[in-house]
Amino acid sequence: LDGREVCRRLREAGNWTPIIMLTKYDDPTEKVMSLEEGADDYVVKPFNARELVVRIRKQLKRTRIRN
After folding, report:
1. Burial of 38 (0-12, 13-18, 19+ CB in 10 A)
2. Are 24 and 45 in contact (CB under 8 A)?
3. Mind listing the pLDDT tens digit for each residue in 2-50?
4. Omega before 46 cis (within 30°)?
5. Residue 15: which residues within 8 A CB-CB, separation 6 or more?
6. Is the dihedral of CA 7, 23, 61, 36 positive or negative?
7. Between the CA of residue 34 and those of 6, 25, 27, 39, 49, what are the distances in Å?
8. pTM for the whole thing?
9. Pick from 26, 36, 38, 67: most CB atoms within 10 A?
C-alpha cells in the first residue's frame, strides 16, 4: 500500500491520529490528493529537521485541543 491508501483507510476506519506525509514527490497534484485523502500535512524530502519538529508539535497541539 502507498501512503495515501494507508491514510485513506485509517480515516475510513475513524482513526484521526495526525498524519504528516513525508515524501519525495514534489508535485502539487500529489500534495492535494494526499491532503484530500486525510493527511494533515505534507513534507517533501529532503526536509529541514527543525521544520519537521515544529510541524509535529503543531499537529500534537491540535490533537490535544480537540480532545
Report:
1. middle
2. yes
3. 999 999 999 999 999 999 999 999 999 999 999 999 999 999 999 999 9
4. yes
5. none
6. negative
7. 10, 11, 11, 6, 21
8. 0.86
9. 38
